[in-house]
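Quick question, first post here. What does this chain look like in 3D?
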Amino acid sequence: MVTLVLRFKGSMGTVRGIRRLVRLIAFGLVVGAIATELSKPQAERTWHGRVLDMVPYDFRPPTWERIRSAYWNPNSERLFNDRVFGVGWAVNLHRAKTLMEEGFRQLMGTEAAVSIRMTSRSDPDVTNTTE
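> Answer (accepted):
Ran it through. Tokens below.
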């Protein structure tokens, strides 16, 4: 039987104790994910799945498509996607941007932001009124 003892001494001790606990949990999840894969017959190992049916893991080499879909996916309403490599979740930055814009508009009582499109000087549809 293993007993985990965390000692908290003041605010710095609390932060250090929390960091230790987070590192220990992360290490345990990585070990659990690897053990899950190694317990399968070699033909059935996929190197991606979930630890304890909750925390996603993926040890396959990342591809640009998977990176893009995890970190910038306008088609997804999820804020947290499965991580591209490792254990845990990735933040869908497009969804985070959308939520922050919505929150800002609600807070400030403004309408939707106007999209700014950069054009080149050779674009015939754009007239320059400043010259």
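The longest helix spans residues 10-38.
Strands lie at 48-51, 55-58, 80-82, 86-87, 89-91.
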